[in-house]
Each structure stands twice: as C-alpha cells, then as structure tokens.
Amino acid sequence: MHILFATGNEHKVSEAAAILAPLGHEVEPLLIQGNPPEFIEPQAEGIEEVALSKIEQARELVMGTKLEDSIILVEDSGLFIDALGGFPGPYSSYVESTIGLPGILQLMSAEPERGAEFRTIAVISIEGNTITETGTCRGKISKQLSGDTGFGYDPIFIPEDGDGRTCGEMSSIEKSSISHRGRALKAISELLNSPSK
Ligand code: ITT
User: Fold this and answer.
1) What would the pLDDT profile of 37-50 be if each residue is shown by its tens digit?
2) What is the extent of the structural domain holding 179?
C-alpha cells in the first residue's frame, strides 16, 4: 500500500519507510503545498488523544484535495520515565525543545532508579476507517549522552532488548527492530495485510 505519513519530523518518515518497505508498504511524507503539516498538539493527558487529534487534523488538511482518498498515517510518541512519574510523556516534544536532553540528565542525576519506556501510538486512516496500534520499548536512561544517530531522546535511551548501547549508538535498522515505532508499525501492517481488511 502507498501510505502518506503526516508528520513534521522527517526522521520518523525515514524510520517508517524502512520498517514498512519489507512488509510491502511504501511510505512518503504528506506534503501540503510542498510543506509537511504542523500540528497543533493539544496539551492532553495522554499520547492517544494527541494521536487522534493529529489524524483529525490530517484528514481536514486533505479534505477536498486530490489526496482526500489517500491512506494517511500519524503517530504520537513519548518518553515515560518511571522515577519522574511518567514525565515527560505527552510533553516530550516541549521538554526536548526547552530543557533538552541535558535537562533530563540533570533531573535524573541523583536517581538510581533509571527505568523508562518509549511509547508510540500509530493511527492510520484508510477508506473512512481508523486503525490504531501501540508500540512500547522498555529501557533505561543513560548517565550521559552517547551516540549521534537517530533523533530526539535516542542518545540517552538504552533499550532493554539491546546490548547496552543507546539508540543513538545503533543503526536505524537495529533501533527499529526493537523500537516502539517498529513495534507499532509492524502491528499496523499486520492489520492492513489481514484478509478482513
Ligand atoms: P510530529 O508530531 O509532527 O509527528 P514530533 O517530533 O513532534 O513530530 P512527537 O510529538 O511524537 O513527534 O515526539 C515527541 C518527542 O519525542 C519529540 O521530542 C521527539 O523528538 C521524541 N521522539 C519521538 N520518537 C522518538 C524516537 O524514536 N527516538 C527518540 N526520540 C523520539
């Protein structure tokens, strides 16, 4: 299937394209007059509500255009740190752009309990239906920034299913084989490929 990913984050598009290509789906960015959409993210309690708001906004953007019948993907992701009561969670984007990764390491500096989880809610709009899937990746917050691949919080997140490196030290293929995004998109693909779809 040909899927248009509505996101302002080009790293997400490249990861999704690489995850879904072997499963038979082609992913391209949704562009409106040449530009990726800029979503208004509600300061919601959960990433589910944010993801559902994004799909509504994306549908409105394509309504009445030649892209109206396209299959559209959106997702919302967040880093939930156990010792901080799930912070930054739905505020991950805002926190990255304000205190940044050094700010998170500072908040965690005296904290021995470093468990955390990345979560993605991926939503696809197809033929008037909405399909939602979740992907999670357990891990821990590193003591320092490591690696320069990936994006966002990758240099401070060490996935449990990895070998001790941060996601920022992994290739994109390694990261996606165990990541929240990889898991959510593989689950979406299974639904898209199922006979009832
Ligand atoms: P869109 O909403 O336009 O899709 P965004 O970058 O704002 O793009 P999110 O709200 O889903 O996307 O992301 C929340 C934050 O989590 C943001 O700071 C991202 O950089 C970060 N993030 C998301 N996925 C990540 C990943 O796989 N690895 C590291 N950080 C990630």
Assistant:
1) 988 878 777 999 99
2) 2-193
Number of domains, the chain: 1
Contact 176/19 with Cβ under 8 angstroms?
Answer: yes
Indicate which CATH number applies to the domain containing 40.
3.90.950.10
For 15-29, the pLDDT digits (tens) are: 999 999 999 999 999
Pocket of ligand 1, candidates 30, 41, 53, 77: which has the most ligand atoms within 8 Å of its Cβ, to mutate? 77
Residue 155: what pLDDT?
A: 98
User: Given a cut of 70, is residue 196 above it in pLDDT?
Assistant: no
| DSSP per-residue string spanning 10-39 | HHHHHHHHHHHGGGT-EEEE--BTTB----
Q: How far is CA 194 from the centre of its chain?
A: 23
Is the pTM here over 0.90, yes or no? yes
pLDDT at 136: 98
Residue from 14, 74, 93 to probe ligand 1 pocket by mutation (most atoms less than 8 Å from CB): 93
Measured by CA distance, the residue closest to atom 22 of ligand 1 is 152
Contacts of 113 (CB under 8 A, 6+ apart): 82, 83
Is residue 76 annotated as part of the catalytic site, yes or no?
A: yes
